[in-house]
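Annotated sample (chain length 496).
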Amino acid sequence: MAGREDGNRQRAAQAGTDPAWAEELLEHLRPAGRDVRRVVAWLAGTVGATVALQDAAGNLIAGNRLPLDEGLVADITAGRIASAAWESRERHLRLVRVEHPSHACVLAVSRQDPFDRRSSGVVTHTAQVIELLLTASESTAAGHRLRRATSDLRLAILQLLMVEDTIAARRVAAGLWPGLLDAETACVYVVESAPDMRDRVAEECLDSTREDALVVRCPAMDGHVIVVGPRETTGDALRSLVGRHPDLFLGGSVRQSLAQTATAYGQAVSALAVAHFRPDKTAVYAERTHPERLMDPVALRGWTSRVLRPLDTLPHHTRAELLATTRLGLEFTAVNAAKVLGVSRNTVRARMERVEALLGTDFADLTVRAVVHLALNTRIGLTDAPSDGTGEPELRLADLLSGPAVRTWGQDLLGRLDADARNPRRTLRTWIAVGGNAERAAQALGVHAQTVREHVRSAEPVLERQLLAAGTDLYEVVLAHLTVGDLDLPVLRSPA
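Output written by the structure step:
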């Protein structure tokens, strides 16, 4: 009787709930433990079996492959039967259907000992857990794919805006975000964070702006999120976001037309550098006096038309592509311009080399880059129709830069450096003359290259412009040197 009681007690324990294996199985549903392969390995160890999880095509998803009857597997995956059992002297096999969002799978468990109530229960419950994990995984993967596609679409819209194709940008945006780009103008903002925080920051930007702005993970800078905000409320929302996070910085542009998104982006990056020194970690691009605003607008437009006339013989789409690429290539490095445009850096360089050839000049010369940059920025306000030059004033670049207002501007700007006994003005002039190369400037001045870099860097806060990075700030300083005669005017094939 005692033996029978022990046997009954053992059978009761096997048939009843075993908290140990149940708790272990539930642990696999925790976020940190959601792995189908681990669950299958756990099942194999718990019931002392060889376990395989495979789909209808026979692909092994997890576990170790087992010899299974293809017809039986087909019946289970097709839903004709939910489970099956097979026994021989050498092994005992259980097959259980596992639902999957896109296709059914089979969980096969093979062991030497017969399946008792405990092992059968473990197999059944494990199949249910695997179903949950596969469903969650499929949903998560679908969510990731959707977010990735949406993110790629936002980037495509930004790239269209960067090359001034606002019509196509609006057409692409209209499908998912109706009305987003209906406005004619927008401000561009750049939110800077640590690269590993950027995805979370991008999501918070979307939440803060209530998707009334175009939010894009910058393809060139890992820690930057670009926000194109047509609405007036975008700036306040982003400033509030930056205020809540100690490690975020925000730079913003002035309001620009959508066709000038590239210009606005450059302004936002420039303001971002200033934001690092502000208590509130935010800055908006300062609307300062730009040299082109001090020139005769009619004469400036006429000069621009003549400078860019060699491109007028090209087909319209080719001309627009070359102009947009060159404009971005002058603002940023070829690598970063390529990432923003979604093309290879070799494509950017090839397009810029073609423009160099047409203009008969060399973009390695900073004075050339500054002058062509001036022409390209002026061209934004011109009609797309090529000009024949009729009625345009025959002013050259020297005439534009010799006006009293622009000369006074250049003298005042560079005069800020005269108080420094180290003579950074001479260093800066020499550095520009050799294409921004510190080593070559150091050889010309008879100093160390690091000294050149320190002088140029110390001039940045005095001039309130970034110099070590190519872009509008540097080109304005180059133009200032040209206006006061500290540098020779560049030579272009066209009558500049």
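Annotation: The chain is about 55% helix and 10% strand.
Annotation: Residues 51 and 109 are 5 Å apart (CA to CA).
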